[in-house]
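Predict the 3D structure for this chain.
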Amino acid sequence: MRSRPSGNRKDCLLIGQLKGGNRGAFDEIFRTHLQDMHGQALRLTGRRMDAEDVVQEVFLTVYRKIKTFRGQSQFKTWLYRIVTNAALMRLREYKKQREVSLDGYLPSFCQDGRHRITPVADWFHEVDDPSKRYELQELLGEALYKLRPLDRTIILMSDLEGFADREIASILGLSLPALKTRLHRARLFLRGKLVD
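Done. Predicted structure below.
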Protein backbone atom coordinates (compact mmCIF):
# COMPACT_ATOMS: atom_id res chain seq x y z
CA MET A 1 0.00 0.00 0.00
CA ARG A 2 1.33 3.43 -0.89
CA SER A 3 1.69 6.03 1.83
CA ARG A 4 -0.27 9.24 1.55
CA PRO A 5 1.60 11.98 -0.30
CA SER A 6 2.66 14.98 1.77
CA GLY A 7 2.02 18.59 0.84
CA ASN A 8 4.18 19.91 -1.96
CA ARG A 9 5.76 23.35 -1.84
CA LYS A 10 6.29 23.26 -5.62
CA ASP A 11 2.50 22.88 -6.07
CA CYS A 12 1.92 26.01 -3.98
CA LEU A 13 4.30 28.04 -6.16
CA LEU A 14 2.78 26.70 -9.39
CA ILE A 15 -0.76 27.35 -8.19
CA GLY A 16 0.13 30.95 -7.36
CA GLN A 17 1.70 31.37 -10.80
CA LEU A 18 -1.30 29.77 -12.53
CA LYS A 19 -3.72 32.01 -10.64
CA GLY A 20 -1.62 34.91 -11.94
CA GLY A 21 -2.14 33.75 -15.52
CA ASN A 22 1.12 31.86 -16.15
CA ARG A 23 0.23 29.11 -18.66
CA GLY A 24 3.64 27.48 -18.22
CA ALA A 25 2.67 26.77 -14.61
CA PHE A 26 -0.36 24.84 -15.86
CA ASP A 27 1.87 22.73 -18.12
CA GLU A 28 4.11 21.93 -15.16
CA ILE A 29 1.13 21.01 -12.94
CA PHE A 30 -0.13 18.78 -15.74
CA ARG A 31 3.23 17.00 -16.10
CA THR A 32 3.62 16.63 -12.34
CA HIS A 33 0.20 15.10 -11.67
CA LEU A 34 -0.73 13.39 -14.94
CA GLN A 35 0.46 9.91 -14.02
CA ASP A 36 -1.28 9.83 -10.61
CA MET A 37 -4.52 11.26 -11.96
CA HIS A 38 -4.55 8.88 -14.94
CA GLY A 39 -3.90 5.93 -12.64
CA GLN A 40 -6.76 6.95 -10.35
CA ALA A 41 -9.12 7.47 -13.29
CA LEU A 42 -8.15 4.10 -14.79
CA ARG A 43 -8.71 2.26 -11.51
CA LEU A 44 -12.13 3.87 -11.13
CA THR A 45 -13.39 3.50 -14.71
CA GLY A 46 -11.60 0.29 -15.67
CA ARG A 47 -11.07 1.47 -19.25
CA ARG A 48 -8.06 3.33 -20.65
CA MET A 49 -10.15 5.40 -23.07
CA ASP A 50 -12.51 6.52 -20.29
CA ALA A 51 -9.56 7.30 -18.03
CA GLU A 52 -8.01 9.51 -20.71
CA ASP A 53 -11.30 11.36 -21.16
CA VAL A 54 -11.61 11.81 -17.40
CA VAL A 55 -8.07 13.20 -17.14
CA GLN A 56 -8.73 15.69 -19.95
CA GLU A 57 -11.90 16.79 -18.21
CA VAL A 58 -10.08 17.09 -14.87
CA PHE A 59 -7.31 19.29 -16.18
CA LEU A 60 -9.77 21.50 -18.05
CA THR A 61 -11.65 21.86 -14.76
CA VAL A 62 -8.39 22.69 -12.96
CA TYR A 63 -7.56 25.36 -15.53
CA ARG A 64 -11.02 26.93 -15.30
CA LYS A 65 -11.46 26.65 -11.53
CA ILE A 66 -7.97 27.06 -10.09
CA LYS A 67 -9.03 30.37 -8.53
CA THR A 68 -11.52 28.44 -6.37
CA PHE A 69 -8.70 26.40 -4.79
CA ARG A 70 -8.12 28.06 -1.41
CA GLY A 71 -5.45 25.74 -0.04
CA GLN A 72 -7.60 24.41 2.82
CA SER A 73 -6.64 20.91 1.69
CA GLN A 74 -3.64 19.61 -0.18
CA PHE A 75 -3.73 20.31 -3.91
CA LYS A 76 -3.46 16.59 -4.65
CA THR A 77 -6.52 15.93 -2.47
CA TRP A 78 -8.43 18.58 -4.45
CA LEU A 79 -7.33 16.89 -7.69
CA TYR A 80 -8.42 13.46 -6.40
CA ARG A 81 -11.83 14.87 -5.58
CA ILE A 82 -12.20 16.21 -9.13
CA VAL A 83 -10.96 12.93 -10.67
CA THR A 84 -13.29 10.87 -8.50
CA ASN A 85 -16.32 13.00 -9.33
CA ALA A 86 -15.55 12.98 -13.07
CA ALA A 87 -15.02 9.20 -13.10
CA LEU A 88 -18.24 8.56 -11.15
CA MET A 89 -20.18 10.79 -13.55
CA ARG A 90 -18.79 8.85 -16.52
CA LEU A 91 -19.72 5.54 -14.90
CA ARG A 92 -23.24 6.78 -14.17
CA GLU A 93 -23.62 7.69 -17.84
CA TYR A 94 -22.65 4.23 -19.03
CA LYS A 95 -24.12 1.96 -16.37
CA LYS A 96 -22.24 -0.80 -18.23
CA GLN A 97 -21.61 -3.06 -15.30
CA ARG A 98 -24.39 -4.97 -13.66
CA GLU A 99 -24.26 -3.93 -10.04
CA VAL A 100 -24.76 -6.68 -7.53
CA SER A 101 -26.35 -6.56 -4.12
CA LEU A 102 -23.88 -6.89 -1.27
CA ASP A 103 -26.48 -8.33 1.10
CA GLY A 104 -25.74 -11.95 0.23
CA TYR A 105 -22.13 -11.49 1.27
CA LEU A 106 -22.77 -9.98 4.68
CA PRO A 107 -22.38 -12.28 7.68
CA SER A 108 -25.50 -13.76 9.19
CA PHE A 109 -25.89 -14.64 12.83
CA CYS A 110 -27.82 -17.14 14.95
CA GLN A 111 -30.07 -15.96 17.77
CA ASP A 112 -27.25 -16.52 20.27
CA GLY A 113 -24.92 -14.22 18.29
CA ARG A 114 -22.73 -16.90 16.66
CA HIS A 115 -22.00 -16.78 12.93
CA ARG A 116 -24.26 -19.02 10.86
CA ILE A 117 -21.41 -19.51 8.44
CA THR A 118 -17.78 -19.48 9.49
CA PRO A 119 -16.18 -16.12 8.67
CA VAL A 120 -13.85 -16.04 5.69
CA ALA A 121 -10.18 -16.54 6.54
CA ASP A 122 -7.43 -14.42 5.01
CA TRP A 123 -5.51 -17.06 3.03
CA PHE A 124 -4.14 -14.85 0.24
CA HIS A 125 -0.63 -14.66 1.74
CA GLU A 126 -0.50 -18.44 2.14
CA VAL A 127 -0.62 -18.96 -1.64
CA ASP A 128 2.98 -19.59 -2.74
CA ASP A 129 2.43 -20.29 -6.45
CA PRO A 130 2.83 -17.02 -8.42
CA SER A 131 0.35 -18.19 -11.08
CA LYS A 132 -2.27 -18.79 -8.36
CA ARG A 133 -1.57 -15.34 -6.90
CA TYR A 134 -2.05 -13.84 -10.37
CA GLU A 135 -5.32 -15.74 -10.73
CA LEU A 136 -6.49 -14.40 -7.36
CA GLN A 137 -5.61 -10.87 -8.42
CA GLU A 138 -7.60 -11.34 -11.64
CA LEU A 139 -10.60 -12.60 -9.65
CA LEU A 140 -10.28 -9.66 -7.27
CA GLY A 141 -10.20 -7.25 -10.24
CA GLU A 142 -13.37 -8.81 -11.68
CA ALA A 143 -15.09 -8.60 -8.29
CA LEU A 144 -14.07 -4.95 -7.90
CA TYR A 145 -15.89 -4.04 -11.10
CA LYS A 146 -19.08 -5.67 -9.83
CA LEU A 147 -19.21 -3.16 -6.98
CA ARG A 148 -21.13 0.08 -7.35
CA PRO A 149 -18.77 2.82 -8.57
CA LEU A 150 -18.89 4.63 -5.23
CA ASP A 151 -18.07 1.47 -3.26
CA ARG A 152 -15.25 0.62 -5.68
CA THR A 153 -13.89 4.16 -5.29
CA ILE A 154 -13.90 3.80 -1.51
CA ILE A 155 -12.05 0.47 -1.63
CA LEU A 156 -9.44 1.81 -4.06
CA MET A 157 -8.85 5.03 -2.15
CA SER A 158 -8.60 3.20 1.19
CA ASP A 159 -6.80 -0.01 0.36
CA LEU A 160 -4.73 1.00 -2.65
CA GLU A 161 -4.11 4.72 -2.32
CA GLY A 162 -3.84 4.74 1.47
CA PHE A 163 -6.18 7.67 2.13
CA ALA A 164 -7.44 8.02 5.69
CA ASP A 165 -11.16 7.34 6.25
CA ARG A 166 -11.87 10.97 7.19
CA GLU A 167 -10.21 12.22 4.04
CA ILE A 168 -12.14 9.79 1.83
CA ALA A 169 -15.38 10.82 3.52
CA SER A 170 -14.56 14.49 2.90
CA ILE A 171 -13.61 13.91 -0.75
CA LEU A 172 -16.76 11.88 -1.46
CA GLY A 173 -19.13 13.97 0.66
CA LEU A 174 -20.08 11.11 2.99
CA SER A 175 -20.38 10.99 6.75
CA LEU A 176 -17.63 8.99 8.44
CA PRO A 177 -20.05 6.27 9.67
CA ALA A 178 -21.54 5.92 6.16
CA LEU A 179 -18.07 5.61 4.69
CA LYS A 180 -17.02 2.96 7.22
CA THR A 181 -20.19 0.97 6.61
CA ARG A 182 -19.70 1.05 2.83
CA LEU A 183 -16.03 0.09 3.19
CA HIS A 184 -16.84 -2.82 5.49
CA ARG A 185 -19.63 -4.12 3.25
CA ALA A 186 -17.50 -3.82 0.12
CA ARG A 187 -14.63 -5.71 1.75
CA LEU A 188 -16.98 -8.49 2.84
CA PHE A 189 -18.35 -8.70 -0.69
CA LEU A 190 -14.86 -9.01 -2.17
CA ARG A 191 -13.89 -11.71 0.33
CA GLY A 192 -17.09 -13.57 -0.44
CA LYS A 193 -16.49 -13.39 -4.20
CA LEU A 194 -13.01 -14.84 -3.73
CA VAL A 195 -14.41 -17.71 -1.69
CA ASP A 196 -16.99 -18.42 -4.43
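Residues 103-195 form a domain with the Arc Repressor Mutant, subunit A fold (CATH 1.10.10.10).
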